[in-house]
Design a protein that fits this description.
The chain is α+β, with helices and mostly antiparallel strands. The chain contains six helices and 19 strands. The strands form six sheets. Strands 6-7-13-11-12 form a five-stranded antiparallel β-sheet. Bound molecules: uridine-diphosphate-2(N-acetylglucosaminyl) butyric acid. The site of uridine-diphosphate-2(N-acetylglucosaminyl) butyric acid has 18 residues, from helix 4, strand 15 and helix 5.
Length: about 300
């Protein structure tokens, strides 16, 4: 059989950057590597590229970005291989997490079903240690294959990766792939857990709107807050934002969801500047009211980084 035509490594200029907010600036240069060697070539063009997943947790400043943006969406960089007998699964960085979750549940492989409803690529999910009340991706990771900014390949075992709440310490690397340990189990039971996670989201979070999910990480309290939590306890940022009276607050086309206060929703005509100003106002109000400094979960890319 003739081999498929070799894909070309292209760099698009003045390219839109897709994000869940549906607002924000463009990339001066967007690279679409087709293989690992192309990823290395990206580092020759810009040793500090910005790695793009599916833009699920990303806000790009309206002025766009000058650094090379790298999209890992080519077929060779999005592949997944599951071994239904052992559960060992190899997923490339650009693979789509929701699709992998559905496929693993269908095959009766457990470990990811609690992450149902989280939009992400594998690379993005690893960097953020994506998760929620029903689990986090770190729990399934065996090892991660990556490239450092000098183009050297490295493999990190699970124990070497400082996974924590919504963080991994992997941000300085270019993630290539991961090996996940999924456990063979009963597909019907896995499906029930998946449905439970999805139903919880549907009942507590706005759906079908433009939003990056939770805008802020849940903070750990330094001092007790009555009715919220004790010192040392991680509490819902959404609850604090809600109690600070921010629900429904808006700046331009950006608004704090009435459903879940940690969700910022963008409407037609919104700009990234609206979202940033709204985040700043939320930060100010929660600090004034509770003395809690919220940390952003949404990643913001700005041109003035150089
Ligand atoms: N709450 C309010 N008002 C609000 C929102 C929440 O009072 O506007 C209360 C709820 O009633 C509940 C408590 O706060 O008693 C916790 O709320 P929830 O169960 O929604 O959890 P969360 O801590 O706000 C976290 C994650 C979500 C994840 C859910 C469920 C963070 C920042 N958020 O939210 O993750 O989906 O648990 O697993 O860790 C995301 O990261 O993008 C995200 C949506």
């Amino acid at each position: 059989m003739p081999s498929p035509p070799a894909l070309e490594f292209v760099i698009r200029h003045d390219a839109p950057i897709p994000t869940s907010f549906g607002v924000g600036g463009r990339a001066d240069r967007l690279a679409c590597p087709t293989c690992e060697e192309d990823v290395r070539r990206c580092l020759e063009i810009d040793p500090e590229p910005l790695m793009l997943g599916c833009g699920a947790n990303l806000l790009v400043g309206d002025e766009g970005v000058g650094r090379l943006v790298v999209s890992m969406g080519a077929p060779a960089l999005t592949q997944v291989q599951c071994d239904p007998e052992t559960g060992l699964t190899v997923a490339m960085a650009g693979a789509n997490l929701p699709r992998l979750i559905i496929e693993s549940v269908r095959l009766g492989l457990g470990g990811l079903e609690g992450l149902g409803g989280i939009p992400a690529t594998i690379g993005g999910a690893l960097v953020m240690n994506a998760g929620g009340a029903f689990g986090q991706i770190a729990d399934a990771v065996v090892r991660v294959h990556a490239m450092d900014r000098a183009g050297r390949r490295l493999t990190l075992e699970r124990a070497e990766i400082p996974f924590a709440y919504r963080s991994s310490g992997l941000g300085g690397l270019l993630i290539l792939s991961t090996e996940l340990n999924l456990r063979p189990g009963d597909p019907a039971a896995l499906r029930r857990r998946y449905d439970e996670a999805m139903a919880y989201k549907k009942s507590t979070q706005p759906m079908g709107v433009k939003s990056a999910g939770c805008a802020f990480k849940n903070p750990t309290l330094a001092a007790p807050i009555e009715g919220v939590g004790d010192a040392g306890q991680r509490v819902s940022a959404g609850r604090l934002i809600d109690l600070a009276g921010c629900k429904g607050m808006g700046v331009g086309g950006a608004e704090v969801s009435h459903g879940h206060a940690n969700f910022i929703i963008t409407r037609k005509g919104a700009t990234a500047g609206d979202v940033i100003r709204l985040m700043e106002e939320i930060e100010r109000r929660v600090l004034d009211r509770f003395g809690v400094r919220l940390e952003r979960e949404v990643v913001v890319w700005r041109r003035d980084w150089g």
